[in-house]
Records
---
Amino acid sequence: MSITVKFFASLREQIANPVTDVDSALASTVAQVWSQATDAPMPEHVLCSVNLEHCESNTKVKDGDEVAFFPPITGG
Amino acid sequence: MSITVKFFASLREQIANPVTDVDSALASTVAQVWSQATDAPMPEHVLCSVNLEHCESNTKVKDGDEVAFFPPITGG
Amino acid sequence: MPVKIAPKPFNPAAEQAEFEQSLTPGSFGATANFVGTMRNYNEGDSVTGMALEHYPGMTEKELDAIIDDAKKQWDILDALIVHRVGQMHPGDPIVLTAVWSAHRGAAFEACRFLMEALKSRAPFWKKETLADGKHRWVERNTSGEA
Amino acid sequence: MPVKIAPKPFNPAAEQAEFEQSLTPGSFGATANFVGTMRNYNEGDSVTGMALEHYPGMTEKELDAIIDDAKKQWDILDALIVHRVGQMHPGDPIVLTAVWSAHRGAAFEACRFLMEALKSRAPFWKKETLADGKHRWVERNTSGEA
């Protein structure tokens, strides 16, 4: 009954002791996954994904989902 | 006292017996060079150059110039 | 495979030539490509190295989707994206986007689209090493106007 | 020499790589290129060969002027144009335009400009050989939208 959480790039370095799994009973949106995973406030420009698809912070999540948080994209 | 005349591509094939030199006393514009060089009427979309620069049919010419006539450009 | 993540230095011309072998000679009249190369400076500072991070799985999926979008929008035969990840040095190719089509308009426009879409949608992040040995994350991609 | 008339088949990637050696690695971040390739069809007909005629002297001068115009309009490091002349076959490269710059916007836009300018200003003419052995002059270049 858990949701996998990942942080990338500068976020991964900034978040102290991030958890990698969140109890799905405690989080029904991406924003709630963030709150369960870290005490830090969500940065203004943070991007997120659910199951490898870009999403919004109010996107619904469920047991088994993979949620990721990352800073603005700088590839190319 | 002459102007060199060149025809390119389909024009070169169409013009019967084109002259390669025109008396500069008989032609003061590009259009007059055409008339001296061939009996054919100047086609509507013909392009021209004087000394390797694009020009108009009323561009002035003088002794020693090289005048060329060619169809629309189809390179690239 | 029209999408490739390269963990080692890659040769854009060789990647493009290899991919082109899957296309019939004479079937296309236009190929547009773009190569992004690591510069030795950025924002006024000398840069000596760069680490490129990605999100395995999502990055490939997003690049595939970008090519699909291009194929819907333009009449193109095929497209290729190769993107480097890992530790790299100035002069190293970072990204290749290439498009094959019958006519040049579609190739130019789709190639540009691939780069702009990739820079806004595909999860990659750059961390620069400066001349003094310090590291900094690149904060944001510039728009295509820059 | 940023302008080359090629009377024999040429390899666009090799030409570009050779020219790129004159540029300092790390000094540019963007390379856009376009390759026009001979198709085996045109206007609904099968095409088996093509002769490309040019105006020696004027063609080179005009291509030089086109590169100069691009350098005035965009912030680019350098540009290269290679154009084939003579008898060619489907699949043969006809033209290469390549642009190097710090940022992608200038490279994309200048590369497109080179092609559009070349197609309207540089004296080249194509004569196609059709499947039945007949020849025909290509009458007009399409706009970049085609």
---
Amino acid sequence: MSASSTFALVRKDVHSELRTRYALNALIMFVVVAVATILFALRSDQPTSSVLAGLYWVVVFFTAMSGLSRTFVSEEERGTTMTLQLVATPSTVYFAKLIVNTALTFSLTIAVTVLYMTVFSDSFVIQTMSTFLVTVILGSLGFASASTIIAAIVAKANTRATLYPVLSFPILVVLLMTVMSATTKALDGEPFEGALGDFQILAGYILAMTGGSYLLFEYVWKE
Amino acid sequence: MSASSTFALVRKDVHSELRTRYALNALIMFVVVAVATILFALRSDQPTSSVLAGLYWVVVFFTAMSGLSRTFVSEEERGTTMTLQLVATPSTVYFAKLIVNTALTFSLTIAVTVLYMTVFSDSFVIQTMSTFLVTVILGSLGFASASTIIAAIVAKANTRATLYPVLSFPILVVLLMTVMSATTKALDGEPFEGALGDFQILAGYILAMTGGSYLLFEYVWKE
Amino acid sequence: MKAVKFGSVILITFVLISGLAIPISSNPQGWLEFPNIPGLEEKARNILYHVPIAWTTVVAFLVGTFYGFRYLKTKNIDDDIKSVSAAGLGFMFCLLATITGAIWAKFNWGSFWNWDPRETSIFVLLLIYGAYFALRSALETEEKRASLSAVYSIIAGITVPFFIFVMPRIMSGLHPGAKGDPDGSGPVVQLKMSPNMLVIFLLGLVGFTLFFIWLFNLRVRLARLEYQRSVQHP
Amino acid sequence: MTSVSLKLDGVSKEFNRRLIFRDVSISLQGGDTLAITGRNGSGKSTLVKILCGLLSPTRGTLMYALDGKDIEVDAIKDHIGLVSPYLQMYDEFTGLENLEVLSRIRADRNITGETIAEALKNVGLWDRRNDFVRTYSSGMKQRLKYAFAVLHRPGVLVLDEPTSNLDADGIAMVERCVREQRSHGMLIVATNDADEAIWCSQRVVLGDEKV
Amino acid sequence: MTSVSLKLDGVSKEFNRRLIFRDVSISLQGGDTLAITGRNGSGKSTLVKILCGLLSPTRGTLMYALDGKDIEVDAIKDHIGLVSPYLQMYDEFTGLENLEVLSRIRADRNITGETIAEALKNVGLWDRRNDFVRTYSSGMKQRLKYAFAVLHRPGVLVLDEPTSNLDADGIAMVERCVREQRSHGMLIVATNDADEAIWCSQRVVLGDEKV
Ligand code: HEM
Ligand SMILES: Nc1ncnc2c1ncn2[C@@H]1O[C@H](COP(=O)(O)OP(=O)(O)OP(=O)(O)O)[C@@H](O)[C@H]1O
Ligand SMILES: Nc1ncnc2c1ncn2[C@@H]1O[C@H](COP(=O)(O)OP(=O)(O)OP(=O)(O)O)[C@@H](O)[C@H]1O
Ligand SMILES: [Mg+2]
Ligand SMILES: [Mg+2]
């Protein structure tokens, strides 16, 4: 793996996404519809912070599921997988896709956050900003680290769109519970220290997933 | 359009979905995953009927969107669009896909209903069954009619990419809001008459969507 | 294998019978009475079935993952056969553990399901198995199916320690040993059981493990035969 | 058997205002054969799509007649057999299933199990009929397209790059198909290869415009 | 310039336990040329993928050496140029962008804007360099693959169905590429066409097994 080729591949993906807007459009639509639906569903209620935190990550999860798998699926569908195999080593591909997916998830969380803050302006108030920021950053990394390799697996299978969340969810449960718990703490105004335990879990999770995926990626990527 | 070729096309799609039962596996798992995610989010709370109704349709929405859009995208991606154009008229294609999507959404709502009733056995109690049934049937039809044309447009996304979220958002949100409101009424035990207004909206929506799509479909479908 | 087969049958039968037959008294006397564990009472008997089954589920999962790992190294299709056989059994035991656990929970904690951390983890394990088989059925080429499902089971395996060691600590739960449990840990963990109960419990563990080994052996042989038949008549 | 005739009148095609070809006029009767030739990018495939009613021309008209009666372009599709790199079979079905499913959608009652079996034997795929198209080699896919194209004995057989991916045996099969078609209907071949153009008596050469 | 040598030893390939070919052994040096022939479905493309390290053989070994030193199959990829129907360029980029992006990913510092411009002119796509590959005709796509394959003057040039979709001018271009490659490196051609097999001095014939 060389940094320059990884970076070139990231640039290619970003460029290609800006051209086709395939993932981006799907993401925007899902986010907006999901938030609108939830807003409508909660209309009459005063949701608790844990419900809000839960629904926040549910939206992120499902939206991510509709977009992240494109990274590999689109290569596979258009037959460019072989081209990429020829010009890049597996680890280059893995890290490039990991970076792209992290960036995508991170922008997603920002979009959802902005939407939530405008829509639930009285109940979704982030009291401990530091906790929230760290949660969102680690959460995006965690999401991307687990779902990148799953996307690579799913790209080789037949029923990609439905299979992707099915394979990802069991693996993401730990992550989801942890980020939900940390987000609740941020909303409730617990001090930053209160969420340190959650962050440790998140860090461990990210390391384990990235390391495992890195080692296994070759088996998935090569025929 | 001939009935027998429409029917043959429906059979082809169903066959293609069911043959190895992998699509079904994935879809069932998907619903389970969606419900589980929501359960996690709500773990500690006693959700109100409007929250439950909202989340019910959010699950249907996400599952449907990840499955329904495939109908055309998969033809387009594999280059079988031309083959289909050669053997079938546009209206045959449109109605076949509409039927398939309606059936898919309807079975989906049944699956989600059964799951909800077992999982939220105390809070998801359908008090006005007639309202619920009509809502689910009209809702499936509405979803299918909207998503069939959206899917056809998405399949050609290269050119119309930016239009897509803009188009689909208002189309889907109206539908979602209406079915949610009707479902809430069914859960709250309002008499059937109470939901008549919603049903009128739904019926009008379905007619407008199907009619409009039928007329527009040819332009979307042919180059 | 004969020894395993008979051993498991004898042990399980013994555990079943003695677990049900031995009376529980608040003041146990000798080997033929169980102590009364406060909060469990008669329901304590299920420890002897539920826990060994849950244990076997985990063993099966580990065995399946191990052979998946071996497949990636050796590319020998026999390892895939072993891996998928173990996964199939694991799924079955997982269902059994869920059912015995859920029934127990109904009588002990009042409802079938409470999202206690351990319940959550067994549910996730069920989902993992479901996803694993859904993935396998979506892959047509044998080699791809073997290696991708192996990768998936390893990736899923990475999360297992989180469920076992981490989750019970961040979530409050009903199982003994969870966060907020006043005792810290319960009868099994601290081996608070009376010696006779402990012996039967351990025999149960051994019995169910042997049972798994026997079934595993059977299934692998069956799967090999099927494989060979499909080689001859593809 | 029906006799198809075709009239293309002053047809031009532009993509994004780039002119591909201008003012093509063709008139073909029952047993006529036409070769469309021209350089890479001269618009052969584009013209083929227009002839099959899969793409509308920018200017000009296309008219088909069946036994002397003018008919809609949509209706002619049942009388066209097309082999083209842009036409794909369903990957997730077997070769046999593809033919069955597609004839059923076409609602063609003349096609029986035997017709299909015969077509598969003709193109040499009978032994592999139960394999998924996904696992076919490039030549096997091309053969399957032939089986599909001639299955309903179309009045017009349109071949775009007829021999690509085929081995000697496959080319012989194409020549058989071509002979058979000339005996009862119209044949249109778009090709780069002079060897294939000689199958046809008439010729349209595209590509005076720059590539 | 580096000299590549290759040794394939007793290689067999099965898909789902269907034997495609058995016990293929090849040994090639610097300037050698090899034609792989055989019927449709005999495994030519499969063997090509194995030679390029894109597919693992079921049995047997593949070894590459660079200037006499054995190297990993992964590392040889930088010295391979491949033209194949299974290799696609990125649709949503222009022809020029494809070459730029792919060389950047390959992290090949020898490739400048001029090298790329020259390659595009060689294959006759310079005028169309700023059009999306999506809008290219089949022959233009094939030409672009050639530009990509020879861009880095690879030690090994591998061509699968070299002339498919190409017109006379395109075939002349392929022959130029082939001549040029023979002058400095190894050439492997998989084809159905006897006219193309004569470019090479050695030959492997696949397909004693049934299609
Ligand atoms: C379906 C999910 C499960 C349910 C409903 C369930 C239910 C129960 C119940 C009611 C008890 C008695 C607790 C007490 O002593 O107060 C218990 C004990 C226990 N369960 Fe589960 N269980 C489930 C899954 C599992 C799993 C997956 C494991 C381990 C892998 C497990 C291991 C244990 C152990 C070790 C005990 C004895 C705890 C003790 O008293 O020290 N259970 N379970
Ligand atoms: N992924 C796969 N799964 C199963 N079988 C496959 C797969 N890929 C190829 N095959 C089979 O392997 C055989 C060889 O295919 P290959 O594409 O190598 O043939 P080829 O010699 O290139 O043929 P052609 O001249 O038609 O291109 C064929 O019988 C094909 O059906
Ligand atoms: N969708 C499209 N958008 C824009 N331009 C297009 C599109 N499709 C084709 N073209 C252009 O039209 C011209 C003709 O393409 P066509 O595929 O018909 O050529 P062809 O004669 O079949 O060439 P070949 O021999 O390479 O197959 C080409 O210049 C191509 O770039
Ligand atoms: Mg063409
Ligand atoms: Mg080939």
---
Amino acid sequence: MDPVVLFFLLGVIARLLKSDLRLPEAMYEGLSIYLLLAIGLKGGVELAKHPIGPLLPQVGGVLLLGMALPLLAYPVLRHVGRFGRPDAASIAAHYGSVSMVTFAVALAFLVDRGIPHEEYMPLFVVVLEVPGLMIGILIAKLGAGGGLRWGALAHEVFLGRSILLLGGGLAIGWISGPEALAPQAKLFFDLFKAVLALFMLEMGLVAASRIRDLRRAGLFLLAFGTIVPCVFAVIGITTGALIGLSPGGAMLLGTLAASASYIAAPAAMRIAVPEANPSLSLAASLGVTFPFNVVVGIPLYHRLTGMLHAAVP
Amino acid sequence: MDPVVLFFLLGVIARLLKSDLRLPEAMYEGLSIYLLLAIGLKGGVELAKHPIGPLLPQVGGVLLLGMALPLLAYPVLRHVGRFGRPDAASIAAHYGSVSMVTFAVALAFLVDRGIPHEEYMPLFVVVLEVPGLMIGILIAKLGAGGGLRWGALAHEVFLGRSILLLGGGLAIGWISGPEALAPQAKLFFDLFKAVLALFMLEMGLVAASRIRDLRRAGLFLLAFGTIVPCVFAVIGITTGALIGLSPGGAMLLGTLAASASYIAAPAAMRIAVPEANPSLSLAASLGVTFPFNVVVGIPLYHRLTGMLHAAVP
Amino acid sequence: MDPVVLFFLLGVIARLLKSDLRLPEAMYEGLSIYLLLAIGLKGGVELAKHPIGPLLPQVGGVLLLGMALPLLAYPVLRHVGRFGRPDAASIAAHYGSVSMVTFAVALAFLVDRGIPHEEYMPLFVVVLEVPGLMIGILIAKLGAGGGLRWGALAHEVFLGRSILLLGGGLAIGWISGPEALAPQAKLFFDLFKAVLALFMLEMGLVAASRIRDLRRAGLFLLAFGTIVPCVFAVIGITTGALIGLSPGGAMLLGTLAASASYIAAPAAMRIAVPEANPSLSLAASLGVTFPFNVVVGIPLYHRLTGMLHAAVP
Amino acid sequence: MQTHARKLVVIITESPLESSLVKDVLALGAHGYTVADVRGGGRHGTREGSWEADRNIRMEVICDAPLAESIAAHVMQRYARNYATTVFLADIGVLRPEKF
Amino acid sequence: MQTHARKLVVIITESPLESSLVKDVLALGAHGYTVADVRGGGRHGTREGSWEADRNIRMEVICDAPLAESIAAHVMQRYARNYATTVFLADIGVLRPEKF
Amino acid sequence: MQTHARKLVVIITESPLESSLVKDVLALGAHGYTVADVRGGGRHGTREGSWEADRNIRMEVICDAPLAESIAAHVMQRYARNYATTVFLADIGVLRPEKF
Ligand SMILES: Nc1ncnc2c1ncn2[C@@H]1O[C@H](COP(=O)(O)O)[C@@H](O)[C@H]1O
Ligand SMILES: Nc1ncnc2c1ncn2[C@@H]1O[C@H](COP(=O)(O)O)[C@@H](O)[C@H]1O
Ligand SMILES: Nc1ncnc2c1ncn2[C@@H]1O[C@H](COP(=O)(O)O)[C@@H](O)[C@H]1O
Ligand code: NA
Ligand code: NA
Ligand code: NA
């Protein structure tokens, strides 16, 4: 098993055994700033090597994917899960959006196995994150009385820490190009996987602490949090193949589709849909889907890609 | 003098001159999490190269050493130092347990000089830490009225941050092995000594701030904090030679025996023996023994090893 | 444009767009401790390669420069800017003192272009910082009633974090020499530029948040904060040439002269000259001069050096 | 030395509301405010700051009694329904009545 | 708007006691609590947080007068002898009496 | 259980004053103090801790009424003119009168 996953399990075990181990909040924040910038820079450097024109149809395809996912999740939550409109919309937005750390683990999975993939994939993270949040908010507000402060929301979505650092890193990497960024590479690229391991320790602590909320939320969320990622992965991998990504790239897009947000979405939903209960969506995305993806999902999606990618004409 | 020691002295000087230099608490915690994991991972990777069977007798020897040390320290504290039972037991537990940073400095000392040693020594750190704490608590409670909440205590001892991270690192290193951990090596192994230097700056600041407490505690603790480590080092080196460690390994075991805890022990003792005055034990372990070991002790124990190791049959 | 500057601009943009991006305070402090130590160590290692004797006249020249700068700035602030004595003295002290990060950016500028320079320049940072603060305090207090607590002030100036870490790093580097510090190099030297980039992100956030104060302070400070650095740069470059520095060294001295303090000076002035309004001096040094130097000044001073250095006999 | 009676309004609530609360409180007429990071537990479960979504702040506002009432009422009406919120008031004395 | 009289119990003590205090306070019947990290000094010397062993917390509990008394008495009896501890009570007003 | 009336003095001011305030307060006769890091806003603008120069602390001192008065007066006279400062007093009850 990958050491990155072992660090995650160490965190889970520590919390389940009620150890008082805690990463200081500033360290957690510092590590996440580092990861977002590093992923962005890496993607930007690769983007600088490609002409942008041919990428535009791919961006369009990913945008459509991002809008489709929450629209698929919502009716399941509303009618099968029997959640009220605000909770269903909020959870849908979490699953329409993405988890950066899941993406990083999948990236490390491919790099370790030497599997090639489009290096500019971080661009698609941004493209996928935004519509997920937007559609989730729209669903919650349409039909519900009360005006929607679009300005505040666009601000929350586009200027939230995740998009800003990832997008900023992309831009800096793109403008600077590989040579100018060489002195940065030792920190941002060479140390990436080890910093990810430290971050996964924290993720383990946090994910385990969500398990209690889960017990209250019941069986439906457990099923939802494991089945939906698999379905979304299939949709994402197929989309990737259709827009011409390599198997590695399609697998990454599938993982992104399968992942659920637990940083950007909770913050945006708390402001846009305050009536939604935040512990439901976090229990599902952080307590179920994140561990599932990291331990079971990523190797599974890799296999699925092997079967699906060749099947797409 | 080793730069690591110079960083320590810079911290001591800064505090004695009443500079307001302070490492932020989160940075201190982050550095200590790093050091514990790095030491554990390194040991685990080496452990993966050895069959476990032949190590078991060595583990047994170190366990016995760990139980003997606090039992030796206690009567001295009680009868020569004239401390009450709680204080004597608490200080004995501090000296029965170990200091991770002292171990790290001794490790760096050997690496710098190219002196070979058993690379799986971090295993013995865990084995030595636990019985020291347990025996200390037992002494305090036996005879004293009032029940002992063993559950809470075992929890405190085994699931305290130090043991958990060190043991977790050992396990991850052992399961993963050297190849899988190669991408982690750049952070956890190559940067180790420099991070240790930063940590030593903080240790200097903290150790110097304990000197005031020491003045109140008097001459006995000063003598205790310098003589006992030398005696314990001799016992540790001899034990190391007897259980078949190389001179480098025996010197590390001696340093571990000579070192006194100032992280795990204070936390455990505050809960197990609340009547004990925590500033006494910290003044001794942090204000006397830590600086003594780092500046004088480690080179001394290295010499002692030269004399003792050959003498053991 | 250098990635380091792009990180700065990312911070500025994030703040102007009112993003909630913030580096945790502990991270900011940790990064600044790292930068100060790294610069000091680097300088100290180089100092170890030189005999000290021949440097003394250079040190003398830099000391004179440090005393001249605030004395030049004060009358301009008092009579052109029409500030009261406390504010004029406080701002003069900020501009008489130096900005470590500006120095680090200029250093990276030279290293990137392979331009040689005296590697012991960090020594001059210390030599330039102290007289600037001292003279500023003296101006404020002379003539103003009320005694001056010299002890407390010398303490504040010499034992402030900046001087202590920079000086401590210099001393450790000097005592240890290049070989003993080799294991530290991977953290302190190889990662330097990337850590600087992270720090510049924070500087961008903070500098942009000072712009509001600037609006209240008016046009004079805007002019002062851009013209004075250019004049001081010319004086610094010329001084550098006169005391025999290489063009690269003279350019660094010019940049130091042109830079204004925003860490040591605000802290010292708040205690020495409490009547001065701290937001005026910070708006100028952090809101105007720092961005100006980083974006426009450093390339400009590099050109100026080309013209001036040859002209000095 | 004479002290002047004022009210201290204390609001303990979810961190993301900070900037919005500051705006509201100043708009209602307060001259200042003080905020600290805290953790806690109550009807909405444990908010120990173990995740970004679980952080609390504690805001103090010193003001006269009528303003204290309107701040408390505003917070109850706008935030207390959907957000973990605790509000209490205390009688205090200040030295510079014109400041608060 | 009417406020209802309640007590605020404030406990300042050593950090390692936090989880134990939370358990005790809830067991005694409090509906919530708020904790902040602080530093300080008193009879047990300076506790400036310069070392892990030297950290203080400040816990606030809002409750009715009888519960306030029993919380204060419990803390005094269980912790105050061996741990650096300060306890005080204040009169406050709350808006939702059923909550506290 | 009987409580004894004391005063709580709360001082909110700029962080660099902390060590100086601690010295003053103990010199005036207080037996202890508690300090927390806070942020805030008031007459001197927003002090959100976004820069080293912009940090606030909040100090609490429990003492008898005359000492509370002299602490408050001293702080007003020595610091309030040039530094961002807020001081208020509250009535509280303590359990161990000899301690404060
Ligand atoms: N009885 C109480 N005493 C002190 N603080 C409380 C109390 N009840 C709630 N709180 C605080 O207010 C926050 C929100 O309360 P609640 O809405 O009850 O979850 C909690 O997270 C606590 O920090
Ligand atoms: N008079 C006081 N005013 C405010 N806080 C106090 C006072 N005395 C003690 N404290 C706080 O209570 C903690 C424990 O007090 P003590 O047991 O007296 O050392 C101290 O570290 C302070 O944080
Ligand atoms: N009305 C108020 N309520 C609560 N805190 C205040 C108030 N006014 C000022 N403060 C605090 O006191 C500090 C200094 O106040 P000032 O001197 O008015 O800028 C501010 O930064 C706030 O933290
Ligand atoms: Na998704
Ligand atoms: Na020992
Ligand atoms: Na200057």
